[in-house]
Amino acid sequence: MFKRIREDIASVFERDPAARNSFEVLTAYPGLHAVWLHRFSHRLWRWGLRWLARILSHVGRWFTGVEIHPGAQIGRRFFIDHGMGVVIGETAVIGDDCTLYHGVTLGGTSWRKEKRHPTLGNNVVVGAGAKILGPVHIGDDARIGSNSVVVKDVPAGATVVGVPGRVISQPADDAEARKREAMARKIGFDAYGLHGQMPDPVAHAIDLLLGHMHHVDQKMEEINTALKKAGIRVEGQALPELDLKPLESDDPASAEPPPATKKSAKSS
Predict the structure, then answer these.
(1) How high is the pLDDT of residue 242?
(2) Where does the chain hold its CATH 2.160.10.10 domain(s)?
């Protein structure tokens, strides 16, 4: 029990820069209080004490502004930021490390006594005012934009915005996209970080430039190799290699761009 509480407090510090100390988190975060009350009410629900579970859930709604049905299944390190107006239905299932902002609804579209609420995978973020309706599945690491209305399944790692919700970006899964991402990291700019929020034409243009830069880099390497084979030596600094390994690593620190190389002292 105390281990779970420590996990919850730690998750607040990870996701809310406004959190200053543990005492403040314990006493002034209604989203956290709502989750703790839900765990107790959910246990009562599983024990068959349904009325008591509903009353406790109602008390939690009154104090926190968050309505979580005691039948909902919620994973570890779940964080509701601000909290007011959040509604989570009876058959909703939420994975580990998920984050919901105020005004989010995980609602149903049927009056039948069946699975009628969404299922969220691990590490899902749902923006303020978003509505996810029906027995849809939201994949791991997905992002739901603020005020979106989602009524269809969302693949893992995708970003969804709009009414109705539409996928605007998915994780890079082809070699060319990964090379563009590596080029972006090498020059200290990540176009995917911008595009992950909304369809940004500037980010799209920079993404095309990154692709072009990669091809120019590759062509220069081919020319340099051909000159060496012809016995022609070119004086100057070698181009830094484009390393794709950090992108395949699970350690985010390994994906940092390499330090800038020193400029040649020779003048052209």
Answers:
(1) 55
(2) 2-169
Q: Which residue has the tokens 């016995």?
A: 231
DSSP states along the chain: -HHHHHHHHHHHHHH-TT---HHHHHHH-HHHHHHHHHHHHHHHHHTT-HHHHHHHHHHHHHHHS-EE-TT-EE-TT-EESS-TT-EE-TT-EE-TT-EE-TT-EEE-S--SSS--S-EE-TT-EE-TT-EEESS-EE-TT-EE-TT-EE-S-B-TT-EEETTTTEEEE----SHHHHHHHHHHHHTT--HHHHHTTS--HHHHHHHHHHHHHHHHHHHHHHHHHHHHHTT----SPPPPP---HHHH-S-GGGGSPPPPPPPPS---
Q: Do residues 126 and 107 lie in contact, with contact meaning Cβ atoms separated by under 8 Å?
A: no
**How confident is the model over 11-40, as a mean pLDDT?**
90
Token pair of 22, please?
A: 């543990």
Is pLDDT of 132 > 70? yes
Q: What is the pLDDT of residue 96?
A: 93
In this structure, the strands spanning 105-107 and 87-88 are parallel
Give me the CATH topology for the region 2-169: UDP N-Acetylglucosamine Acyltransferase; domain 1 (2.160.10)
